[in-house]
Amino acid sequence: MRYNQQKTHVMRRFIWLLLALILVAGSSCEQIVNVEKEKEAILAVLLEESAAYTAGDKERVFAVHMKDDLETRLELGVHGYNAYIGWDEIKTLLGDATDAWQGDHAVNTKEDVIMKVTGKSAWIACNNVWKSTFEGEDSSFSNVQIVFLEKVKGEWKISFSTYYSKPKLIHDME
Hints:
The chain is an alpha+beta fold. Helices cover 39% and strands 39% of the residues. It has a 6-stranded mixed β-sheet with strand order 2-1-6-5-4-3.
């Protein structure tokens, strides 16, 4: 009988040790997020959207978006704001804007970037700077861009974006 008790005691220890080993091995197999790599991928999504826009390629513009009923875009300026809610409204806006683009040699950069990545979601705030030439004239403008993204099937997609026009300095006010 004593032999069976010792055998049972050894088996219990072995089972607990095995469970602990499985738990440690399982938790160490969690995928570690390389935040810097994800930040590069997110910035690449925003730059791809801009490059597709200037190339007049609506399908490439559309490809970086969530395309669902909750996707939202806000545009805020000195004369008020426009809200576009749902993919149908945003698709129409982006398609029309892409068709109307007339800049030559346009360059878009993202400056003063602040970004946070948390697993399968992220946000970015930056100065959205555009420089282009139209009919031989150089022009530029910038606004504040804030974008929320979600990672779907390994790809970052835009789910919310807003653009704030920067206030213009009025010299005659005293």
